[in-house]
Amino acid sequence: MSDASTAADGPQAPRPRTAAVIPAAGRGVRLGPGAPKALRALNGTPMLIHAVRAMAASRAVSLVVVVAPPDGAAEVKTLLADHALPERTDFLVVPGGATRQESVKLGLDALPAGIDIVLVHDAARPLVPVDTVDGVIEAVRDGAPAVVPALPVADTVKEVEPAAPGEPEPVVATPERARLRAVQTPQGFDRATLLRAHEAVVVGEGATDCAGLVERLGEPVVLVPGHEEAFKVTRPLDLVLAEAVLARRRANDGF
Ligand SMILES: Nc1ccn([C@@H]2O[C@H](COP(=O)(O)OP(=O)(O)OP(=O)(O)O)[C@@H](O)[C@H]2O)c(=O)n1
Ligand SMILES: C[C@](O)(CO)[C@H](O)COP(=O)(O)O
């Protein structure tokens, strides 16, 4: 994707500037004991570095804000300095909060003036392909205030009445699968809309993704195609899958 702001036949309006906020402050409890999830290695490189490279691979992204584990900002700055990253991209590191939503808000608060489009991308989705990133940015540039990459759901999904641990859970509904989508990141937003959505959150009534907050404002949220390789590393088997994807990429492209 080219980011030129002038054309041969004269000056045009400058392209909107895009930043990526990467919440990376989670512990990774479901992955099991160890370092914070974003700092764990995939093929010898921290997951966070894979995620940062995935964002910086888009020529439209001029700034990446990493939201680090609360006591890990210095370590993350060192990691960014120690790994090869594109020179055209700027990097900022801020400490995160107690929830993903709080961490994203801390990242948003660190954005400088002049950024119009914000991607929010989980460090835990280190392998998202650049075409998916660019597809999200393009849809925001085309005027959608909130854009989410998504895939059809493969399993049938049941809604349950939560039960005590160890007790069977009663099913209350089976949503029509053809209407369900599993959503991924990066989610892309018009900056002002995303900020308004975060500022409107009532304590105790958060959402598990930023797009959920925009929906509550009554603003439209649209989906674009996601990618199987943009899966979230959540449980131990996901690490095995992520390393297999990297091995396949190396075999295919010598990458
Ligand atoms: N307080 C938090 C919690 C989560 N995240 C980030 O949000 C993304 C998605 O969250 P998830 O995969 O659930 O990560 P964890 O919260 O670390 O996982 P777990 O729930 O297993 O502890 C991750 O990149 C994670 O680092 C964050 O920045 N700040
Ligand atoms: C944002 C997200 O990755 C979209 O699927 C997901 O909601 C994050 O959930 P988590 O359990 O907080 O990781």
Automatic annotation (TrEMBL):
Alphabetized UniProt keyword annotations: Isoprene biosynthesis, Nucleotidyltransferase, Transferase
Sites annotated Positions MEP for the nucleophilic attack: R177, K232
Gene Ontology MF terms in the entry: nucleotidyltransferase activity
EC number per UniProt: 2.7.7.60
Transmembrane regions: none
Associated pathway: Isoprenoid biosynthesis; isopentenyl diphosphate biosynthesis via DXP pathway; isopentenyl diphosphate from 1-deoxy-D-xylulose 5-phosphate: step 2/6
SUPFAM superfamilies: Nucleotide-diphospho-sugar transferases
Site (Transition state stabilizer): R30, K37
Catalyses which reaction(s): 2-C-methyl-D-erythritol 4-phosphate + CTP + H(+) = 4-CDP-2-C-methyl-D-erythritol + diphosphate
The protein's enzyme class: transferase
Domain of life: Bacteria
Biological role: Catalyzes the formation of 4-diphosphocytidyl-2-C-methyl-D-erythritol from CTP and 2-C-methyl-D-erythritol 4-phosphate (MEP).
Xref: PANTHER family: 2-C-METHYL-D-ERYTHRITOL 4-PHOSPHATE CYTIDYLYLTRANSFERASE, CHLOROPLASTIC (PTHR32125)
Family from the record: Belongs to the IspD/TarI cytidylyltransferase family. IspD subfamily.
NCBIfam families named in the record: ispD (TIGR00453)
The protein's name: 2-C-methyl-D-erythritol 4-phosphate cytidylyltransferase
Native source organism of the sequence: Streptomyces lasiicapitis
Gene it is expressed from: ispD
